[in-house]
Write a structure and sequence with these properties.
There is one protein chain. The chain is built from four helices and no strands. By secondary structure, the chain is mostly helical. It has one domain. Helix 1 packs antiparallel against helix 2 and helix 1 runs antiparallel to helix 4. The longest helix has 21 residues. The chain starts with a helix and ends with a helix.
Length: about 90
């Protein structure tokens, strides 16, 4: 059974994917990087040890992407920062 924190993280991940899909003019490399980061976090929710290490490494990259998207895609940037905050609260 999933914890409330995991459900909250899954909802944030769903919103990131939704906003990324709706974002226009996102460089392919940036889009792929963000998708890879979110997939690492999704695998972490299954408690796989190696995936948890990847998610730990993903947080600084998520923060950097949020800063990058701040001007061009503020909703996506905001959701990424929410995700970073939720990961911190979940101990990831």
């Amino acid at each position: 059974m999933s914890s409330p924190n995991q459900e909250s993280l899954r909802e944030l991940l769903r919103r990131v994917h939704e906003r990324l899909h709706g974002a226009k003019k996102v460089e392919a490399e940036t889009r792929e990087s963000l998708l890879a980061l979110t997939h690492d976090i999704e695998r972490t929710l299954g408690s796989e040890r190696s995936a948890r290490a990847r998610a730990d490494a993903a947080v600084p990259r998520l923060e950097a992407l949020a800063v990058k998207f701040e001007a061009s895609h503020p909703a996506l940037a905001h959701t990424l920062l929410e995700l970073v905050d939720a990961l911190g609260k979940a101990g990831i």
